[in-house]
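Example 3.2
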Amino acid sequence: MQKSDRHAKNSPALQHEAGDRAFVFAQQLSEFLVEHPFVQAAPHLKHEAEEIERRLADLYQRIWTTEI
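Structure, written as tokens:
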């Protein structure tokens, strides 16, 4: 990888974009899947969806604290 390619991937704008995408995805996951009545009515699905939601929140936090 050329030095210029590495710096382009290290752009603060790309970090912001990744954080924003994680946030939007988390909102969509919560609104359209975690809170869905079918998922809420099935304890095993509710638990799994909430675990995915928690892991996505962790990823969101790691995006903002990662330095490349």
